């Protein structure tokens, strides 16, 4: 029983990271139907920038702020690069963002080299409860993810700007007719995605390390988690991330750690075959 609880704690913590990245995919796709393959790179870049900033002597809170704001700026630049494309299809967005993802990886490799590194752990003491070792960083990851998830969901459901973004996603033509800027909504969605990716990167770095290529795995697993939620639901993205993290942890603990990364591929195949719209996605009305 203790082993199961230990695996669940670890799985929920890594699943929370996947959930943040999955929300980044969701907020962009739900507005513009763009699948942003640079989302994982946002997380990797945030971790590396935060490590550099703390090494240079900045206090941890200030280093985290600089890191996240820098990633938000990069996310906005990615959107501006994509903006001139007039007929953006999902396939074209995959091809274009894949190229941008490769460019970001190359830049990180040149700036930081091939070695992975970790940010200093956030303040707090590890402890043991019921025989289960709980790291303070796990609590930071789970707690911050919970707060951010609630904040993003409230933003979309309770604020006028959030409702405008949802209008652009559900009825883009009608949104234009009432004066909502669809292009502005797309830019804002990339900014939010950059914020989510940056938070994921700095939270994960003390435990899972940051490297020039670490965004590949994070992006893939975040995409799988978002797919579980149908790529349009914030709550679905969070649930998908936690489910995927727990499945990975259980497989690594009870089967073989070598199969850990294969779980995401298996889940993706099952979802695409059994329910392409996402396991947690509700039936939706076609756009007009």
UniProtKB/TrEMBL annotation:
Major subcellular location class: membrane
GO CC terms of this entry: plasma membrane
Any Pfam family the entry gives: BPD_transp_2
Transmembrane segments: 6-30, 64-82, 94-113, 138-156, 177-203, 223-247, 259-278
GO terms (BP aspect): amino acid transport
GO MF entries: transmembrane transporter activity
Organism listed in the record: Virgisporangium aurantiacum
Membrane topology note: Multi-pass membrane protein
Protein family (similarity comment): Belongs to the binding-protein-dependent transport system permease family. LivHM subfamily.
Residues spanning the signal sequence: none
Location relative to the cell: Cell membrane
UniProt-recorded name of the protein: Branched-chain amino acid ABC transporter permease
Protein keywords: Amino-acid transport, Cell membrane, Membrane, Transmembrane, Transmembrane helix, Transport
Superkingdom to which the source organism belongs: Bacteria
Lineage of producing organism: Bacteria, Bacillati, Actinomycetota, Actinomycetes, Micromonosporales
């Amino acid at each position: 029983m203790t082993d199961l609880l230990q695996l669940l704690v670890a799985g929920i913590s890594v699943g929370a990271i996947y959930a943040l990245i999955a929300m980044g995919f969701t907020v962009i796709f739900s507005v513009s139907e763009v699948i942003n393959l640079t989302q994982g790179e946002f997380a990797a870049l945030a971790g590396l920038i935060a490590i550099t900033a703390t090494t240079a002597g900045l206090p941890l809170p200030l280093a985290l702020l600089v890191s996240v704001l820098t990633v938000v700026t990069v996310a906005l630049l990615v959107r501006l690069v994509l903006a001139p494309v007039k007929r953006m299809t999902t396939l074209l967005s995959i091809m274009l963002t894949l190229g941008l993802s490769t460019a970001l990886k190359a830049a990180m490799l040149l700036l930081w080299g091939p070695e992975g590194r970790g940010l200093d752990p956030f303040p707090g003491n590890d402890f043991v409860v019921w025989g289960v070792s709980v790291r303070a960083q796990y609590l930071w990851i789970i707690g911050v993810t919970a707060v951010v998830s609630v904040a993003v969901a409230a933003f979309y459901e309770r604020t006028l700007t959030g409702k405008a973004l949802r209008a652009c996603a559900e009825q883009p033509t009608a949104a234009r007719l009432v004066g909502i800027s669809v292009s502005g909504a797309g830019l804002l969605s990339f900014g939010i995605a950059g914020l989510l990716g940056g938070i994921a990167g700095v939270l994960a770095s003390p435990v899972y390390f940051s490297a020039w290529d670490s965004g590949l795995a994070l992006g893939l697993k975040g995409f799988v988690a978002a797919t579980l939620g149908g790529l349009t639901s914030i709550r679905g993205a969070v649930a998908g991330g936690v489910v995927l993290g727990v499945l990975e942890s259980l497989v690594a603990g009870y089967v073989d750690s070598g199969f850990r990364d294969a779980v995401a591929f298996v889940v993706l195949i099952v979802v695409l075959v059994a329910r392409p719209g996402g396991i947690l996605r509700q039936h939706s009305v076609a756009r007009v």
